[in-house]
Amino acid sequence: MYKAGDLVVYGGNGVCRIESVAPLPGGEQAYYTMRPLSSDCVIRVPVTTKTEMREVISREEALQLIDGIPDVVAEVYHNRSATLLAGHYTEAMRSHRCEDLIGLTMSIYAKKKLAEREKRRIGMIDERYMKRAEELLFGELSVALGIPAEKVPDFIDASVGERLAERGERE
């Protein structure tokens, strides 16, 4: 069970700070009262919730994830059906794990680069899911690394650049 002050990843809400663990007025069951770091809303859920809730990854885990980015194989997913495309992306985001979010963003990024080479743009569904996956990923990495979320992409670029330079794969 988590306690007040803990930072957790709660489903698609991203990183949340638990403000209290107590029954709601007039009730017996304990509830988490928490606030997402990325918005001003309040979430109340029973401590027995079935929704994915886990601790934020550690700094060491975040650095290991970033270090492994050059080894991720991005598989581009194409589908003309907007419903099937959105379903595929929703399924990829369902775990809310950083590894899966990295894979998804890299897949859509590879799709974007392919489209640019063909003088096209990716679709709105691709853009929307990439943006959401990045928000969730950068939000958690921000907390784990102790840096603002808007600085996470530059941190990743620099770290990946160093790793590729060490391997002789970047000029």
Could you walk me through the main structural features you see in this protein, from its secondary elements to its overall organization?
With 171 residues, this protein is α+β, with helices and mostly antiparallel strands. It has helices at 59-67, 82-93, 98-117, 124-145, 152-166; strands spanning 7-10, 15-23, 30-36, 43-46, 53-55. A five-stranded antiparallel β-sheet has the order 4-3-2-1-5. The protein is globular, with a radius of gyration of 18 Å. The termini are far apart. The model has no long low-confidence stretch (mean pLDDT 92).
What is the structural class? alpha+beta
Work out the helix count: 5
Q: Which blocks of ≥5 consecutive residues have pLDDT under 50?
A: none
Number-wise, the strands total 5
Name the overall outline. Answer: globular
Q: What is the arithmetic mean of pLDDT?
A: 92
Succession of helices and strands:
EEEEEHHHHH
Major sheet details: 5 strands, antiparallel
What does the radius of gyration come to?
18 Å
Strand order of the largest sheet: 4-3-2-1-5
Strand content: 15-25%
Classify the helix fraction into a percent range: 40-55%
Ends: how far apart? 48 Å
